[in-house]
Request: fold
Amino acid sequence: MDDTSPGNAGKEPGYCQKESATGADHYSIYSEIPATPLLVCLFGGLICGIVLSDWLGIPSDHIMMDLLTDLLMFGGTGLLLVLSILRKGSSAAFNLTDVPRDVKWVVWGGLAVLLLLFSVGSVTSVLYPLAILWPNWVEEVLLVEPSYAGLNPGLSGLLRASSVLLSILVAPVIEEAIFRGVLLGRLKRKLGLTRAIIISSLIFGVLHVDMIGGTVFGLVMGCLYLERRNLWVPTSCHALHNGLVLIIDGLASAKGFHFDTASDIVTWGRFGFLGLTAVLPLGMYVRRQSHLWSSDGYTSRANPRRLG
Reply:
């Protein structure tokens, strides 16, 4: 479409209407939303979930604590996000037809697998020395599986289904909207693009148990978002990654393979270090996106428009 067409009147130079193949330009929508209230709500929900569970007498290893915490985190933050978008009058953020058609599933699927492998390696790098030095503490604190004690089979199954839904649908959508859509865009305006993606990734990592893997995950998702300026891209990759985690965990449980003791970590953990090699192709991918880090702004190959 010609930049001088009536539909682009008043737009910044270089702007072009998004074609159906590339999806909606979410950067211009989400970067207008304040990030601080969303982050306060997200981390506040985490703290409130822990405190409320303790007040209600819910054991820290019980599935009800996990679901209560997730409900307060994602429920409250998701509602605030929707209200913020509607307040800006940006109903286009909810348009389900704006999914990019030229989906590179092989590339994004490969990134999801590599991120999973790196996460295994980063978790191993933390647990392995701890399992050698303080095996009892590792078994009592870090290797505790969620308990379904006191729940009938029907309720237990419902809670398991809810946990899966939260992991592959709710968490990816809300986390990508906040950390990539809102926070990255707001920080970019104040600190520049390089600092913005690093800081937003670090904050994303702090929210997760595996902080190292979470930070690297945030960097890769940030590159995906900046490359296409469309949240469906990192959200799809995020959901695929979480789905792979659940599938592998389910298969391992079905085969009776568990990490229940510190000796299991020591015995099998050495193989987990191989996952750290995934940082090489991941680093190459981030390096290939070096055109995103130019000092004079960012130009997407899908939509040549400078971030402003």
